[in-house]
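Reposting from the mailing list since nobody answered there.

I have sequence plus structure tokens for a pair of proteins and want to know whether others read the tokens the same way I do. The first protein:
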Amino acid sequence: MSASTTPQIGSGSSEIFDSLPYYDNDLEQYPHLKQKVEQELAREAGTTPQELHPKVPPPFELFSSNPLLKAELDRCEAHEPLPQLDTVRYQLPGPVNSPASDEDWRKAIGNAHAQLEHQRIRQANLALLQQYGSNAWRIHNYRLESAANTAEKVLEELKNMTTEVNRDRKNIQTRFGSQLTSLETRWTELISSVLQIEMANAALEADINQLNKKEAELAAL
């Protein structure tokens, strides 16, 4: 039913769509139309749209205020390997020069102090992790489970809303489609009646012309 229209369901928009997808069956009635639609869909699938729909929001830029995270995201998107860890800072090299100067020894000693401080902090962190880590992970897992349950509930609500909207659209389109079919049938009947009346008028005019012609012939005699 190519002339069917229906308002958009689920919003206050005044947009009008020239189709009733839940009711129209033109593709089933005309296989050649279905073949053309499939060819067009296959052609569009291989092309990239030049611009998005106006209702599609613009792309959101992640980590715009954090250059380090943005650089890491760009690295992951580019499928680049992770840089190797710098292990020099965890070593205790001696003075490079031989014989070593006092400045070289001061640098080596400073590096050793930094390594010792790092190990001390690491040991303290391990002790804290052993004492409080298990409870912290339990709390973290509980929060994750709560967030997952909330997301699942929201997803289920959205699915129910989507199902309800599609059900309403189908009911409305089915009702409108039946009305349009009835009106189309009535329109066809009226057009047929008008054609029959026009044919009857043409036949009557032909009979009248024939009678007028006979009347003229009788008057001439």
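The second protein, same order (residues first, tokens after):
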Amino acid sequence: MKYVIESTKTTSGTRKLLMTAEIKEACLRVVRNRKKPKREPIIDGYGGFLYLDKNGKPMVALHWEKYMQYDRNKYNREQPL
């Protein structure tokens, strides 16, 4: 598998999110505190990815989808209807 960073298909797919100083600091803290990879991954000139998988590669959408499914299922199990 090859990692690539590319533009969205249309301009409506591009999202710009405001980042407060607190959010910026939180993101920098995540990078500082994460387990240091043997080699920092650089993909299409981008580095400093917030989260890396167990192999030191940037996490992809599938990782996040599975985490969200797990969290949703756990919440549903623990919350009465």
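Reply #1 (J.P.):
I read it the same way you do. Residues 20-78 form one domain.
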